[in-house]
Amino acid sequence: MAILGLDYGAKKIGVAKSDEFGSFAMPFEIIRSDNLQAIIERLKAIIFQESITKIVVGLPISLADVEAKSDNQQLKEVKEFVEQLKASLSLPLIFEDERLSSKQAGEMIRNSPQKGDDDAVAAMLVLQTYLDKRRN
To answer: Which of 24, 66, 111, 49 is nearest to 5 (CA)?
Structure first.
């Protein structure tokens, strides 16, 4: 009974998955598409194949806490994306603050012998934050 973590971007969505016990997160894949239906179909396949029971989505709250302001376009886009997911998937969707996750993921990738895309790593960090809070 694994949990999926998503780091939404307009062109790429980082995907992470927890272990079956919900203890730790690991990068899973990157969905590269701007076609919402294709994204939803890929997520449905992952949910089925990996026995996913819940989805955690990174919420882009800035350090200036602009969530309350109407000018945070990325925040609006993530919320619209989640509304589309809710209409298409029958799983609980939970928001988790993704503050600094992309920066941390970039640093992890730069310092790693295996260079690569940081979107799935950012999704892993968001999901791990949620798992750690749930455990404590």
So the answer is: 24
- The mean pLDDT value for 120-132 works out to 94
* Structural tokens at position 94: 């939970």
Domain span at 73: 2-135
Q: What is the CATH number of the domain that holds 43?
A: 3.30.420.140
- Per-residue pLDDT of 98-122, as tens digits, reads 865 555 545 555 554 444 568 899 9
Pairing between β-strand 2-7 and β-strand 12-18 as defined by DSSP bridges? antiparallel
CA distance linking residue 125 with residue 104, whole number of Å: 8
Domain count of the chain? 1
Q: Which residues contact 96 (CB under 8 A, 6 or more apart)?
A: 5, 56, 57, 58, 59, 126, 127, 129, 130, 133
